[in-house]
Design a protein that fits this description.
Blueprint: H1 2-5, E1 12-13, H2 21-39, H3 51-54, H4 75-93, E2 100-101, E3 108-109, H5 121-128, H6 132-159, H7 162-173, H8 176-180, H9 185-190, H10 193-206, H11 209-223, H12 228-253, H13 257-289, H14 329-344, H15 348-363, H16 370-375, H17 389-406, H18 417-440, H19 454-462, E4 468-471, H20 497-506, H21 529-533, E5 536-542, E6 546-551, E7 558-559, E8 568-574, E9 578-588, E10 599-605, E11 608-615, E12 624-636, E13 639-647, E14 657-661, E15 668-671, E16 674-677, E17 679-680, E18 682-687, E19 694-700, E20 703-708, E21 716-718, E22 732-738, E23 741-746, E24 752-755, E25 764-768, E26 771-773, E27 776-778, E28 782-787, E29 791-797, H22 800-824, E30 831-832
Parallel strand pairs: 1-30, 4-5
Antiparallel strand pairs: 2-3, 5-20, 6-18, 7-14, 8-13, 8-15, 9-12, 9-14, 9-18, 10-11, 10-13, 14-17, 15-16, 19-20, 21-24, 22-23, 23-29, 24-28, 25-26, 25-29, 27-28
């Protein structure tokens, strides 16, 4: 085994000098065709943007377009990626570098922060394409093409077999991880992993500076790709490849000058790439330093038994972004077959594939002690299950090794059946991966790309810079409307403590997850002064907005028994008179998109039925309050009422439960003939009582636009920065505006502070009548400047720190490149050999 693994030295190559170039062109054209076939999108008529999810919600019922819902786990693309990309693209096309993004939670660093992917290859493709819907399609395609061609190069350099390289390329590009995370920076980062490995390996084999510079570029791009944990996994894979190759080299030729030079050359090339990425990485660090990450911990969704999903059972029984990793059934079988071939003919690169698999099993599938895994840098605050990208890498390497043995060894084989067999296997793998791709990723018609609605158009025509909006669950997750350049106060992202305090006063239950929000209109406190301080001018909410006037309380929580066992019923004790508009109940659908059947709600006073309503299955979502609207307001006097919640099809094979408090002052509920302690989580809603300065406009059926008339401008005056001063928009006028440089004029004569309602950070500066002044903070969040007479105030984002960082990194990059050239020496003439 040792002899065969190590019989070639560092000068060996796996790309013979005289292989006809045409065959590589044919292989790459075939790979290109397979990628397009697997994705299966017509960019002239379809888009890969997840408009199927957006249009599934009632806020777009009047948009005039519709499409079937394919996957409900694509919200991050709509509330995070696309709002940022659309703003960056718009600013760039207007000739302005978007260093500040006013749409992202009222303000955040712009294109220079890699977590927003503005420095990535797919964003460049998106920004350069004239049609946005096409641009997003091409952006996703560029990721898959990058992943496929990078894997092709890596595997060809390893095994010197084009068919095997094509098979492994589509296996990696469309492994379950990359399919599931298609709309996240996870894929953007993952697509560059094979390029890091390929350029690293090829430089080791040839010593040519071109490959070293390719390694530099790959390291820089993966650092800027937007998801550091996947970049870390790429670095770990690179280290394992280096160990496998170096070990084989030392066993073959011993330690000599050439491998040492290669090691130093790769080191300097990697450092040069790190210097290129460093300005962006420092931006990410500053964002994370100001964020409480204590809720992020290591751990995995998987157990060792979940490895059976490598055969695709995750696509059958456990389909979901966090749980999908299979790389195709043919690839799984060939990966297992590779163990036989490794035993028969050991190969250093196949052993590398085994190294990756072992590391993946130890971490992703929890086979190693958690204390050890948490000690690995980065694993303590990231989900280990996202390391399933390593399954795609390992499967690509090992299955390619099997295909190498199955494929004919000569261009003109004596037995053509082997050629036909490997072609059939490649096609079968492509068909399998294409089917799975369409299970997770929609291809809606191109006209579904962010259609306007009457309410959205109405608000967009009136909102001013600095003003913001709140949208309720009719528009699903907060941040969706930021795609229309409507800044949402609760948009997706990391939040500061001051921001959380403001949000909690406006909507106490605004946090659905650590970074996302789904706002219920009934949860909005319209009397909160923070609404005006945050310049929230418009609320886009479900027609007939209500507020919670009664809510069950208790201790602990648990899911009730399934309603398939019988109706859920019990008593409600109401202590005040209510004019009820609806009843909300918190349901659990066991991770299914909707309830298995329609659900009915009945309310009785003694034996008199006082309210009856029914919800469709689609109106009931997992772990969300479902709203039973009454046909008319139902007057409820103080007293005891009986509720009955039942399924229209109680014999369903799929379960539906309500969430309940475990104990609630002795209250009980009944399901079928069984009685349980506690009470379901329910709310009774009344029509919202709006403050006097609020009005309601109905631009369309089903949606109400509530306007806060106090917010009449872009900035306001307060007489102090403490307490709850009155915000006066009257004396403040917006004179000039760019997202990162704006001027307001204060016409008053009183002493106080002029506030511009955007999120600020330490790089914002201010001048008063042209002279630099200290920038204060109102509510520890909004920038404020002290005034005592009519003045002109300029707020601007100071980018000089970026220039200083760039100067330092440019010097570091230049020094690394010089050292690389010095240690590289002359490239030796490579010769062919076995792996």
């Amino acid at each position: 085994m040792t002899t065969q693994m190590t019989e070639t030295s560092v000068q060996d190559t796996h790309l013979p000098d005289r292989i006809p170039f045409l065959r590589h062109i044919i292989s790459m054209v075939l790979l290109f065709a397979l990628v397009l076939g697997i994705v299966g999108v017509n960019p002239l008529r379809q888009t890969l943007a997840p408009m199927d999810l957006m249009l599934a919600y009632p806020g777009w019922d009047n948009a005039g377009v519709d499409t079937d819902l394919v996957n409900a786990e694509r919200s991050d693309a709509l509330d995070h990626r696309l709002p940022n990309w659309r703003e960056f693209r718009r600013e760039l096309r207007e000739g302005h570098i978007p260093l500040w993004n006013p749409l992202h939670q009222l303000g955040a660093p712009g294109i220079q922060a890699p977590i927003y992917e503005g420095l990535s290859v797919p964003f460049l493709v998106y920004a350069l394409t004239p049609n946005e819907a096409m641009g997003y399609t091409f952006a996703l395609l560029s990721n898959y093409l990058l992943a496929a061609f990078g894997a092709y190069c890596l595997l060809f350099f390893m095994f010197r077999n084009r068919v095997a390289a094509v098979f492994g390329a589509i296996t990696f590009a469309f492994c379950g991880f990359n399919i599931a995370w298609a709309h996240w920076p996870h894929l953007t980062t993952s697509a560059l992993v094979p390029w890091v490995l390929a350029t690293q390996l090829r430089y080791w084999q040839t010593g040519r500076l071109g490959w070293a510079f390719g390694f530099t570029l790959s390291v820089a791009l993966i650092g800027l790709a937007g998801f550091p944990f996947v970049a870390l996994l790429g670095g770990i894979s690179s280290l394992m490849l280096a160990i496998a190759v170096l070990f084989a080299e030392v066993r073959s030729a011993g330690i000599n000058q050439l491998p040492v030079r290669r090691i130093f050359g790769l080191g300097f090339a990697g450092i040069a790439g790190a210097f290129l990425a460093l300005p962006g990485l420092l931006q990410v660090r500053e964002i994370l330093v100001s964020t409480d990450l204590s809720s992020r911990t290591g751990g995995t969704w998987f157990t060792p038994y979940d490895i059976v999903n490598m055969f695709g059972s995750d696509f059958v029984n456990n389909l979901g972004v966090e749980r999908t990793f299979s790389a195709g059934i043919p690839a799984a079988l060939l990966t297992l077959l590779a163990f036989y071939f490794i035993f028969k003919s050991p190969n250093r690169f196949a052993v590398f594939g085994l190294f990756v698999a072992v590391f993946m099993l130890a971490t992703v599938f929890g086979m190693a002690p958690a204390s050890i895994v948490n000690a690995i840098p980065g694993f303590g605050f990231n989900a280990w299950s996202r390391g399933s990208v390593l399954f795609g890498l390992s499967a690509a390497v090992l299955s390619s090794y099997s295909v190498k043995f199955l494929a004919p060894q000569s261009p003109k084989p004596e037995s053509p059946y082997r050629f036909h067999l490997v072609v059939f296997i490649c096609l079968l793998q492509a068909i399998n991966l294409g089917y799975w791709f369409r299970q997770l990723n929609a291809r809606p018609d191109i006209e579904t790309f962010f259609p306007d609605t009457p309410s959205i158009s109405y608000v967009a025509s009136k909102i001013l810079p600095g003003q913001s909006i709140i949208a309720d669950g009719s528009f699903l997750v907060s941040g969706f409307l930021s795609n229309y350049r409507l800044p949402e106060l609760f948009a997706h992202g990391f939040r500061t403590d001051a921001q959380n305090k403001i949000g909690a006063d406006i909507a106490p239950s605004f946090q659905t997850t650590y970074t996302a929000s789904i706002i219920q209109c009934s949860d909005i406190n319209f009397s909160s002064p923070e609404i005006t301080y945050a310049a929230v001018r418009f609320f886009l909410v479900k027609e007939g907005c209500t507020e919670s006037s009664y809510e069950t309380t208790g201790i602990g929580q648990r899911a009730t028994a399934s309603l398939t066992n019988g109706a859920l019923q019990g008593d409600l004790v109401i202590d005040k008179s209510i004019s009820a508009t609806n009843m909300q109940v918190l349901f659990g659908t066991y991770d299914r998109d909707f309830a298995p059947s329609a659900v009915m709600f009945d309310l009785y006073r003694d034996k008199l039925l006082v309210a009856h309503t029914e919800l469709t299955p689609e109106a009931i979502r997992n772990n969300q309050y479902a709203t039973f609207n009454f046909n008319q307001d139902v007057p409820l006097v103080a007293g005891t009422y009986r509720y009955v919640i039942s399924m229209a099809k109680p014999n369903s094979q799929k379960m539906l439960s309500a969430w309940a408090f475990e104990t609630a002052g002795g209250a009980t509920y009944q399901i079928g003939s069984s009685v349980f302690p506690g009470i379901p989580k329910m709310r009774i809603g009344e029509r919202a009582r709006l403050p006097q300065n609020f009005s309601i406009a109905s631009a369309e059926r089903g949606v109400s636009v509530i306007e806060n008339h106090t917010v009449s401008g872009s900035g306001y005056y307060v007489d102090g920065l403490s307490g709850q001063p009155e915000a006066d928009f009257g004396p403040v006028r917006l004179a000039a505006y760019q997202p990162d440089d704006l001027t307001v004029e204060y016409s008053g004569a009183a002493h106080g502070w002029v506030v511009f309602p955007i999120r600020t950070n330490k790089y914002w500066r201010a001048t008063l009548d042209g002279k630099p002044v200290e920038l204060g903070k109102f509510l520890d969040f909004f920038p404020a400047v002290e005034v005592n007479r009519p003045s002109k105030i300029r707020f601007y984002y100071d980018s000089s720190h970026l220039l200083k960082t760039l100067e330092l990194c440019t010097a570091g990059f230049a020094a690394s490149v010089i050292l690389l050239i010095m240690v590289n020496g002359r490239a030796s003439r490579p010769r062919a050999g076995a792996g």
